[in-house]
Amino acid sequence: MSRLVFSRLLQAIPTLWVIATLTFFMTRFAPGGPFDSEKAIPEEIKVKLESHFGLDRPLFDQYALYLQNLLRGDLGPSFKYPEWEVSELIATAFPVSLTLGVLSFIIALLIGIPGGMIAALKRNTWMDYLPMGLSMAGVCLPTFVLGPLLIFAFSTQLALFPPLGWYGGSDWVLPSLTLGLFYAAYIARLTRAGMLETLQQDYIRTARAKGASSWRILTKHAARGGLLPVVTFLGPAFAGLISGSFVIESIFFIPGLGKFFVTAAFNRDYTMVLGTVLFYATLIICLNLIVDLIQAWLDPKARQFK
Amino acid sequence: MNPENSSSLGKDAWLRLRANRMAMVSLFILLAIGLLSLFGPMLSSNAFDQQNLDRIFESPNGTYLFGTDNLGRDLFARTTYGGRISLSVGLLATLVSLIIGVTYGMISGYAGGRVDAWMMRMVDVLYSLPFIIFVILLMVMFGRNFLLLFLAIGAVEWLTMARITRAQTLNLKKAEFIEAARALGFSHTRILFRHLLPNLIGPIIVYATLTVPAVMLLEAVLSFLGLGVQAPMSSWGSLIKEGAEKMDAAPWLLLFPGSFFCLTLFSLNFLGDGLRDALDPKSSED
Amino acid sequence: MPLTLNLLRINPMSNLHIENLQVNFHTREGIVRAVDGINLSIKPGEIVGLVGESGSGKSVTCNSILQLLPAPPARIESGIIQWSGKDLLLQGDAEMQGIRGKEISMIFQDPMSCLNPYIPILDQVAEPLIIHGLCHPQKAMKNAREILLRVGVQRIAEHPRAYPHEFSGGMRQRAMIAMALITKPSLLLADEPTTALDVTVQAKVLSILKDLCGSLGTSVLFVSHDLGLVAELADRVVVMYHGKVVEQNDTRALFTQPSHPYVKALIACRPTLDISQDRLPTVDDFIDPKEEATPHPTTYSPPNPSSGQEALIEARDLIVEFKTDEGTVRAVDQVSLSISKGTTHGLVGESGSGKTTLGRSLLNLIEKSSGEIWLNGKRIPSNGQRNDSGFRKAMQIIFQDPYASLNPRLTIEQTLLEPMQVHRLGKSKTERVDRVVALLEEVGLGAEHLSRYPYEFSGGQRQRICVARALTTEPEFIVCDECVSAMDVSVQAQVLNLLKSLQVTRGLTYLFISHDLGVVKFMSDEISVMQAGRIIESGSADHIYNDPQTVYTRQLIDSIPAANRSSGLSS
Fold first, then answer.
1. Which residue on chain C is closest to B187 by alpha carbon?
2. pTM for the whole structure
3. What one-character-per-residue DSSP string does chain A give?
């Protein structure tokens, strides 16, 4: 197990390095980038930039300085709002997105997995068609259509939940529901497919021949194999939840990292954009590691991984 | 086995697809939407960007089939025009990802050994990057260019295509007819393109059909965030954005583009599922 | 050694009576009558062998007893299965669950796929006791451990939490047997349990099965395609053909005096070890009414004297190594070989012996790590010029699985024309097509098959097409890599006869690889026995069987069921 962790960490470091280097060179050489001499940059920003990035020094020194700063967690000042450090902005905004993400994730799992399992068990009956039909609809109804529709239904018409903001109370309901339902749809489909495939396996027939009930077969025998594809999806799912929250945060006006990122992109706040990218990348790599560990725990064959 | 009709596998699959009602309905819907998108803007008497400021926010009526928006533009023309953009981005980006991904995956799987390990390691590294973020980054850095948009999206999707192709290739490589081809002295190129590729086409088509909606979704998200195609061009994504903002006043602004978009995604997914069942008889056995 | 399983025997001994069972499969192509009205009985403590080839309906019969058939395509049209005073076919799911694993247990063919890879073996073996509430979970685990040790799975003592993939095939099958018998059922259904195992392992597993069932008084329905194997084990034999029972009798009586022509054919077309034949009798010889009743094995002509003949293929100090997670594995360990022109060299070994690797490395399909190979006195170059046409044309191979050996997307014509196109044989397309048709006829097919696709042919026919394909380049040497191992005995006989006659007409040289000693002896002039990558014994076919020099070879021969060693024909 520990070998797995070690090897994954070993893989993660070059990945991060690649990303960091890519972003570095992108900023230096992109047309219309911040260091494009044709752009008129306000004086105060120019001063801060030069001190932070060491613009007067040779390229390699700049790169080294950049990497050093990264390791210290210093992502530089915001381009648009130079009195703020990028890392500060991330620190305020991220917890909001995280809460949203976790809530949506829980909703997605609570609806998706049981839905998929029931559909697999009661194949080709209404208990299969209904959830799968809904989940198909869910997959095709993007969050930015579903969101406004939900607002329209529950906020405007029924006045049950507030349509925007993130200040407490039941603010979290509509956003998490929107995001959660969308992912629930994917998870339900994956669960059903994984369970169905597992239920075709020979060892399920052996379990039946031993006299096991359908319930026992589902929970004890089929669950582990059937849920494996879902677990594999969880990594990208959580990553998607984070990026999906861009849209949600925009629609519901939630002051999360996604909204900050999009606004920064619009405002061409380069340091903010780059800092956020690096942050997300690190986050996702950690998440993938956790998912790999869970997979190894579930699948005894994978534990003997080199 | 019936020795009389030596139907090819393709014909067999087509018959199975025909029997799948949902898939046929989806195909029909897609054709309808496709044709509308192609000819719609021409059918309408108004150009899609023609503003008519004394007829703003009109609900659907005789002159304006889908109503008008905040600048008096014909929603029907805009929706069908948006269809052109969204569908072409979807198809072109999928094509790009197909060509890159299939070639990459096929070579990686066929070569095996160290070459395969390194190629896949690269894919793994790229896979772990938060791509939508990168796409946004690219858009910010290089400006909003239509060509760049679908190149960027295509560059994101090729990874999945490569992985799938490689998995299928590895499977096929074990089949004895590939070894027989080597024993008969066939060149690697011949084996790749005459023996491997035709047997990969099934899964490739299925995943291509499922990639198109994923790409369209990605483009729509970008447009929604304001980073997609630039005005006055409009894709369904940007139309939905505008519609969502004005939903209280004029729900039809969200309704029509939204329905077109969702219907297309829906149909593509059903068609993809249908193709998967048609091409792999085992998976459709109930 | 008495077993200390103190379980109450819940059910008294029962008889199983199957009456007029009819099972149909509703497929896209139409209705297939898998089981077409059969009657079968099993007395308490009896071992009944149910024998048939693929498509005979034996597995379907076995699975329908416990209602384990896949319900939509399969439908039990009529029949009664009497057990313990009930009709099993009328029982609902809840009642069946109570019977399965408790009164009637079942074991299956492939122990790897039939055991849950995510649950430790001990838990799986204990599970039937827990499901049926026969004892405390802790006691169940204790009983499971005991019975596993009794069947010889020693590893469980030190590694109680071990998973299925940590055991070998033979051990897994023993665990399956333990799992099935832990509840002391009255009847055990065994569906081809040893088919996937090596011959030596098979013998041990069968003796454990017989031993345990005997001491528990459990009756057994043993399903197999191997008549000889069943004869070793069973008290009575039932033979099925196309969904019907064609003959059933006490074992000895069936073998010494078979009455139905199909049974006579099955007995006769097995290549056995005691007689030498030029040609195997086939089912057609017995069932085709035009032919005479029981043909004798055709006269035996002595093999080509290999001494003094020039060697076509020579290999010296061949080593093939693979890098795996555990380190470097030597699949072929310093093998030297010489095959004379026009003869067949047999290569016998169990799984993991390296025989397949050796065969493929001769053709450079697997890269050898070191050693030399010569064809007709010329050294075959290694990696750089791997695709040198000269050698490729002269050396061909036929594989084991006829279903995977042909490109499903190409017609037969395309498959057979391609090698000629690549090697530029024949001057025009018509000439090539003529040659292709001639080849098809040579293997027993015809011009009408040209435009067909592989999926339209049976396994035996596909293998013939593979033979034709191998002949397109006019080779001198063909490696037959387990090419009849996946076939029914009757089909096997036809293909073997074909290979032998082609050898005579074309002067071919074969390397015949198989784990089946009878088949190897039928085909070969010289034989080498392989174990763990080395050739441990070599000699003429007769010599190896009548006077084996090594312990392993003797073990191999002894593991073969007696009825497969000697031909069961009445003299």
1. C387
2. 0.80
3. -HHHHHHHHHHHHHHHHHHHHHHHHHHHHSTT-TT-TTS---HHHHHHHHHHH-TTS-HHHHHHHHHHHHHTT---B-SSSTTSBHHHHHHHHHHHHHHHHHHHHHHHHHHHHHHHHHHHHTTTSHHHHHHHHHHHHHHHS-HHHHHHHHIIIIIIIT--S-SS--SSGGGGHHHHHHHHHHHHHHHHHHHHHHHHHHHTSHHHHHHHHTT--HHHIIIIIIHHHHHHHHHHHHHHHHHHHHHHHHHHHHHHT--SHHHHHHHHHHHT-HHHHHHHHHHHHHHHHHHHHHHHHHHHHH-GGGGG--
Chains A and C form CB pairs within 8 A to the count of: 74
Instruction: Tell me which of A203, A231, A301 to substitute to probe the interface with C (most C C-beta atoms closer than 10 Å).
Output: A203
Contact A281 B136 (CB under 8 A): no
Residue B2 pLDDT exceeds 70: no
Tell me the chain A residues in contact with residue C131 when contact means C-beta distances shorter than 8 Å. Answer: 210-213, 216
What's the confidence (pLDDT) of residue A168?
A: 67
Q: Which of C365, C457, C469 sits opposite B1 (nearest CB)?
A: C457
Mean pLDDT lowest for which of A106-115, B108-117, C62-71, C320-329? C320-329
Q: B130 Cβ partners below 8 Å, 6+ apart? A: A239, A242, A243, A277, A280, A281, A284
B285 → chain A, closest CA residue = A200
| Among chain C residues, CA nearest to B114 | C323
Chain B environment of A148 (Cβ under 8 Å): 243-244, 247, 254
Using a CB-CB cut-off of 8 Å, the residues of chain C touching A209 are 66, 68, 100-101, 105-106, 108
- Residue C291 is predicted with a pLDDT of 38
Chain B within 8 Å of C408 (Cβ-Cβ)? yes
Could you say which DSSP state residue C400 is in? Answer: S
ipTM: 0.80
The whole-number average pLDDT for the span C226-246 is 91
Q: Label residue A305 by pLDDT band (50, 70, 90).
A: very low
Surface of C (45-84) touching B: CB under 8 A: 72-73
Mean residue pLDDT of chain C comes to 86
Element containing residue C454 per DSSP (H, E): none
Residue C29 has pLDDT above 80, yes or no: no
Classify burial at C4, counting beta carbons within 10 Å of its beta carbon; exposed 0-12, middle 13-18, buried 19 or more. Answer: exposed
Q: Of A281, C152, C475, C263, nearest to B183 (Cα)?
A: C475
- C140-145, long-range: CB within 8 Å, 24+ apart, which pairs? C143/C5, C143/C7, C143/C182, C144/C178, C144/C182
Q: Where does the pLDDT of residue C3 fall: very low under 50, low under 70, confident under 90, or very high at 90 and above?
A: very low
**Rounded distance between C-alpha atoms, residue C502 and residue C493, angstroms:** 14
Interchain proximity B244–A30, CB inside 8 Å: no
In this complex, the residue of A19, A32, A262 whose CB is nearest that of residue B225 is A262
Greatest mean pLDDT range, B39-53, B232-246, C430-444: C430-444
Burial code of C163-178, b = ≥16 C-beta within 10 A, e = fewer? bbebbebbbbbbbbbb
Q: Are C221 and C187 in contact (CB under 8 A)?
A: yes
Dist CA C125 CA C115 (whole Å): 10
Model confidence pLDDT, tens digit, residues B184-226:
888 888 998 889 988 888 888 888 888 888 888 888 888 877 7
Residues of C in contact with A306 (CB under 8 A): 325
Binary contact (C407, B199; C-beta < 8 A): yes
CB atoms within 10 A of CB C53: 21
Name residues 25-64 of chain B within 8 A of A (Cβ): none
Q: Pick the residue from chain A with its C-alpha nearest to B283.
A: A197
Decide if C425 contacts C508 (C-beta within 8 A): no
